[in-house]
């Protein structure tokens, strides 16, 4: 399978149908074998196989599966490596794109975000699905008619003229820079998720888990490029779908007696609202919230008393340790005192940062639970308006970011024709919605289970999954339950859950056997790996094709181009793995930054390049640079994790929605500079006519 494949566009309809049927048969057999594998593991678990072995079997089987597809699909042909030979049928391209899209942020983090933030988190569902409508209407079909390899290819041809010209190289270099920044930010989040899943289900260290997952990523993208990635992603989508639906359907039947999650969602939501109202009025909950308020006030007093409060606190911590040692306290008490001293801020400046975070965290837990289904709740009209504006801003950023993501738009080049590209986007939306319409239901069902089963449980009867997940990452526990009011009963306010664990823990929360937990982990791993494959290929192709071949060495042979791409992919993968091992931020924050950057930098230039002939070289440069600068400036100056301050926000818009300023700024700069400078050459207008011509 290393030679060039004939183009399906040129093949007779009978041959294309035969190719489609052959693919369908392969994946039906794969689905059947996957079902038998699950059944065998369920039997082994019932016979007493240890959980860790089941986790190892899942990891081993999925990595071997992806490796086999990568080896079978290996290629050195440029068209096959970059665009899968432009012969992927619309249905399968839709499945592959959906797998590419349903990243770790979607599979792992989105349900948890819906659990934690309720209605507000629907912005992700609306923004990401709405973005595909923009892809279908404004960009994807026209890129397919252009029929090259990368997004910088299109921008260079549209705004810079012929390949090799100075202007073309400048546009290409800017587009490559944007592709690298956006894709690298996104891929770090995926590799971080791989480490989280691998460490949870194999027991290895987080950093080791990252590099285990990296082996699976590289064996596909390194050997076969887009061809291997495409056929792997189709298999990964099947795993993702099965893994997500089984526990959700189980919870639907458990709480609503209905196997359709979307229907169960409607019947459980009123029950959840009733339970929320009960907890809001519970005096024991109020007692716990009051304790958190007192802790927040204590941190506020410490901040007001700096630097003397820091000095006094350090002396007290040392005194408690000395007292524990001198009075022959238990080993646990001594270790606790030692940990308190080690965790104490080293300087007064560090204390400002640490105590401010702890004050904010305690204030958040002192607030009563917000109704899950209430849109934009707030104590005042202004607070409600701010939340509504942030909701709309996030939808805006996610929509325009989706329509400009290089690794998603690259898939428009892989279908046999423009018509197939349009149909492919329909199938992509269909396969994405199978998951996205289920996520709100999963969040509500899991929330109702925790609010009714976990809340009110005695601390001596906590379910085993709580301690299991609390020990996955001891430095930053994914779940923490502490008896704040010392009544021996779990209150809602005493539970702190990281949203990234909710989907992975759902089978255990719902009481399903561990084999389903392993299945969900395999689904999360498939989601992270499929997206990471596409992102790494987008980066390496941009560097090898757009920089090396188009600018540095236009005479390079096809074999040399593919080899360079593989080596660059290897280098970028290891750099991304190292950055992910440092745990730079939570998954959803990293992904949100990528969307804002993509929309701000690429969207105006892409859409104007298709629909506005007057857009020229100077306008495109100004638009891309302005959008990137405005978006980056806003994120750096408002995101506390990047050294900024929330006090610097504009119109109360959160840092994750920086694109709400970057996209309009880029579009205005593109229009203004294009109108103020010479019109583009006639060839640019001819390219627009060509890509917009009817089929």
Unreliable stretches (pLDDT < 50, length at least 5) are 1-10
Mean pLDDT, nearest integer?
86
Total helix count? 26
Assess the beta-strand content as a share of residues: under 5%
Side-by-side strand order of the widest sheet: 1-2
Backbone CA Rg: 27 Å
Task: Characterize the biggest β-sheet.
Answer: 2 strands, antiparallel
Amino- and carboxy-terminal Cα gap: 32 Å
Compute the number of strand runs: 2
Percentage of helical residues?
over 70%
The SSE string, one letter per element, is HHHHHHHHHHHHHHHHHHHEEHHHHHHH
| Class based on secondary structure composition and strand pairing | mainly alpha
Shape: globular
Structure summarized in a few sentences:
This protein has helices at residues 13-46, 51-72, 78-83, 90-101, 104-117, 122-146, 151-160, 166-202, 206-256, 261-281, 283-304, 308-326, 331-343, 348-366, 381-402, 406-409, 418-436, 439-454, 464-470, 502-509, 514-552, 558-581, 587-611, 617-638, 659-676, 682-692, and strands at 479-481, 495-497. The protein is mostly helical.
